[in-house]
Amino acid sequence: MKNKLQWIVVIFIILVVVGLTIMWMSSVFDRNTDFHSYTKAVCNYETNYCVDMLITCQYGEIKDMRPIADGVYFSNDWEDPRPLEVIDEWC
């Protein structure tokens, strides 16, 4: 009986450790809660002018946006080849 109780306690501890590890990893890799930066072309479609920006996000909100290069004017018939989901996605 004592041996069975020890196994139950050991299995319980293992399950708790695994559960806490999964919770920690999900918070580390959750895009809405972390602090990250990425680059993105930000365009004015009335003038076809685009600038590469360094965008810094935290908790799903923009914390900083800075140009990292000079902007570019595209011809009047230029269309952004990116899907709308990419254009409209920020943090």
Q: Give the percentage of residues in beta strands.
A: 25-35%
Number of strands: 4
**Structural classification:** alpha+beta
Question: How many helical stretches?
Answer: 2
Rg for CA atoms = 24 Å
Looking at the structure, what is the overall shape? elongated
Described by strand count, sense and barrel closure, the largest sheet is: 4 strands, antiparallel
Mean of all residue-level pLDDT scores: 80
Order of secondary-structure elements: HEEEEH
Helix content: 25-40%
How far apart the termini lie comes to: 55 Å
> In terms of per-residue confidence, which ranges show pLDDT below 50 for 5 or more consecutive residues?
none
Q: Can you offer a commentary on this structure?
A:
By secondary structure, the protein is α+β, with helices and mostly antiparallel strands. Helix content is 36%, strand content 32%. It has two helices and four strands. It has helices at residues 2-29, 84-88; strands at residues 35-44, 49-58, 61-67, 72-73. Strands 1, 2, 3 and 4 form a four-stranded antiparallel beta sheet that branches. Strand 1 (35-44) and strand 2 (49-58) form a beta hairpin. The chain is elongated and about 80 Å long. It starts with a helix and ends with a helix.
Helices and strands in order, then pairings?
Blueprint: H1 2-29, E1 35-44, E2 49-58, E3 61-67, E4 72-73, H2 84-88
Antiparallel strand pairs: 1-2, 2-3, 2-4
Summarize the structure.
This protein has 91 residues and is α+β, with helices and mostly antiparallel strands. It has helices at residues 2-29, 84-88; strands at 35-44, 49-58, 61-67, 72-73. It has two helices and four strands.
